[in-house]
Amino acid sequence: MEKITVYEKPTCTTCRNVSKILIANGVDFEKVNYYIEPFTEKKLRSLIKKMGIKPVELLRKKEKAAEEIDIENSSDEELIKFMVNNPDLVQRPIVEAGDKAVLARPPEKIYELFEWTPSI
Questions:
Q1: Which of 8, 28, 41, 72 is the most exposed place for a label (fewest CB within 10 A)?
Q2: What is this structure's pTM?
Q3: 120 found inside a domain
Q4: Is 119 among the domain residues?
Q5: Which among 1, 12, 23, 120 is annotated as catalytic?
Q6: What CATH number is associated with residue 107?
Q7: Residues in the chain with pLDDT < 70?
Q8: 15 catalytic, yes or no?
Q9: Domain total for the chain?
């Protein structure tokens, strides 16, 4: 099986639920607290590509920091830079497996990465 990485904020309930699902299914994975090990622009761009989404879809628009940018008129690159500089604005958790990744909201979205049936 490919290396599984979960990019998370440890205090996030959804992140903890993703960890529980992975553990219950016997999946070995690495956790990355992206507040301690921040995303680079290159890494965030890569994850967005692997998820097959637009940067705006990864942006937490209801966070106070989101008021500092004109979301509607910002380029993808501007949004990526803004999220790298403001980690609270990144939707979480992101689960990466090889050349695929998924925004695990809700946590059950991680099943899209695997060929197993949920055990919980």
A1: 72
A2: 0.91
A3: no
A4: no
A5: 12
A6: 3.40.30.10
A7: 1, 115-120
A8: no
A9: 1
